[in-house]
Amino acid sequence: MHPYRSHTCGALAKMDVGQNVRLSGWVHRKRDHGGVLFVDLRDHYGITQIVADSDSAALAVLESLRVESVVTIEGEVKARSAGTVNAALATGEIEVYARAATVLSAAEELPMPVAGEQEYPEDIRLRYRFLDLRRETLHANIMTRTKVIRDMRARMETAGFTEFSTPILTASSPEGARDFLVPSRIHAGKFYALPQAPQQYKQLLMVAGFDRYFQIAPCFRDEDPRADRLPGEFYQLDLEMSFVTQEEVWETMEPVIGGVFETFANGKPVTPSGSFPRIAYDDAMLKYGSDKPDLRNPLIITDVASHFTTSGFGLFEKIVAGGGTVRAIPAPGTADKSRKFFDDMNEWARSEGHAGLGYVTRKGGEFGGPIAKNHGAEGMEALYAALGLGPDDGLFFAAGKPEQAAKLAGAARTRVAEQLGLIDKDRFELCWIVDFPFYEWDEDAKKVEFAHNPFSMPQGGMAALEGQDPLTIKAFQYDLVCNGYEIASGSIRNQSPELMVKAFELVGLSKADVEERFGGLYRAFQYGAPPHGGMAAGVDRIVMLVCGAQNLREITLFPMNQRAEDLLMGAPSPAINTQLRELHLRTVEPSKG
């Protein structure tokens, strides 16, 4: 018999009754029933109940151990009585009567519990992540992550893609975040950058003629953390295709991403592959107040500025006359809601930094609130008719500059739907957001900047770059969104050296700047570059969604905390003087105050 185990802790069943077995694992729980000790023995595969009584030499050993100690148990498989069968366990029909127990590793007193799913402080969980990872939900999430990645790889290979690995030490690239820099020992004063994404390399692979590339790519960005973005590193399903239109990218990737969701949705409905809605960016910002709309939310925002060009409600009339707008967010079936519900929404908007959220109440066809009173019954009837609202539906208003109104309306749409229980949490709604702006106005720098990926192809090509207002140019760029999260982003690339230079000139960079910053890509485009495009899907966010987790730390092995610290390994840590001298570096303390 194997020195540690003949079976795993998830393998034994009723057909094994009578066998002598050897199991090894962690002491998960102990229950002392006065001379009879029940121990749940856990390993990666499951839990088996161990029984030791006064006739067993194992009793004294097991009684002396703390939970999470590692032991080997030798004993006989016995059937549980009908009243003690545990249907929740794969091994619930049997138990092992322990004849001997060997301690492989005794546990000290635990800094946090492993059995159970109770909340525990994040700093303790991260410092003792090896214990945290033993907990059932987190352990299962990590296994789901590995299965999702395996499924992605299989689907990509079936779709004709080849997996390539691109460099980790590279040059700085403008991906919209700070680089992690790595000093060069050989080249004093020079630095490598960890890739924010393999963008340039995957385009170079297309120029090199490989046609369809993918990898599960590690990406590194020095940016602030949030619930759907970890500090430091993340992983993406990165891909590129030659000789394709954006429609072909969508048609290729819908079965891949949609298929992953269908496989891991546990029966929850998923938008069918081949039918993901395609929503223009401008329409998304108008109807949903966001470029990553949650389509489980049935509420639609409407621009109602035309109803307030002349109105007894002077504030809205003034805003519209000044070039602003008014967005309406319906609140269906709120006749039974008190005035406090509407006032609380207004206070919430103010707490978010907005001037406020106007509202109209309606019960049995009777309008209420200052806006309705001043706008007039006739005007309100016309507005409600235009919006298709009923006699018991309320209405909220977000007014101001278009960008501000869209942001408030989008947030209010989400909050109203949550308050009214309108969002079906048990489904996955996917859609493409398309036709993104190529440029945007940088208010701080007072200049035009790229809105997203600078390597995207502008719609209209050179004619658009030379003849249009830059802020009106759209890009062949697209995002894939699921349940309010951006889970992928991509574009058709600009593979023309002339177009590339012209696009960068509009943000103030010269041809020489392009050659210096993106020399490899710029040179490659001069030697025959195929039309190409692709995208990158966030592995971490997809896993978070299919696991039903609320934070990326719940699906990541060894994450950092909110201050970008690895509490387990003690990173970042100071470098010793010898290391600094080898790298020709000197540390400078930040100024105090």
- How widely separated are the two ends? 68 Å
Proportion of strand residues: 15-25%
Helix amount, in percent? 25-40%
Q: What is the arithmetic mean of pLDDT?
A: 95
Taking pLDDT < 50 over at least 5 consecutive residues as the criterion, the unreliable ranges are none
Helix and strand content put the structural class at alpha+beta
Biggest sheet character: 8 strands, mixed
Largest sheet, spatial ordering of strands = 6-9-10-22-21-20-17-11
Shape verdict: globular
Number of helical regions:
18
Query: Regarding quaternary structure, how should these chains be classified?
Result: single chain
Number of strands: 22
Rg on CA atoms, Å: 30 Å
Walkthrough of the structure:
There is one protein chain. This protein is 30% helix and 24% strand. The protein is α+β, with helices and mostly antiparallel strands and 593 residues long. Helix 13 (461-467) runs parallel beside helix 14. The chain has helices at residues 58-63, 122-127, 129-132, 136-158, 199-207, 246-264, 281-287, 314-321, 339-351, 370-375, 377-387, 402-420, 461-467, 497-505, 511-517, 519-524, 539-547, 577-582; strands at 20-32, 36-43, 46-53, 70-79, 94-105, 162-163, 181-183, 191-193, 212-221, 232-242, 278-280, 302-303, 325-331, 358-363, 366-368, 394-400, 430-434, 439-442, 447-450, 477-482, 485-492, 532-538. The longest helix is centred in the first third of the chain and has 23 residues, at 136-158. The strands form five sheets. Strands 6-9-10-22-21-20-17-11 form an eight-stranded mixed sheet, with helices on both faces. Strands 1-2-3-5-4 form a five-stranded mixed beta barrel. It starts with 19 loop residues before the first strand and ends in an 11-residue tail after the last helix. It contains 18 helices and 22 strands.
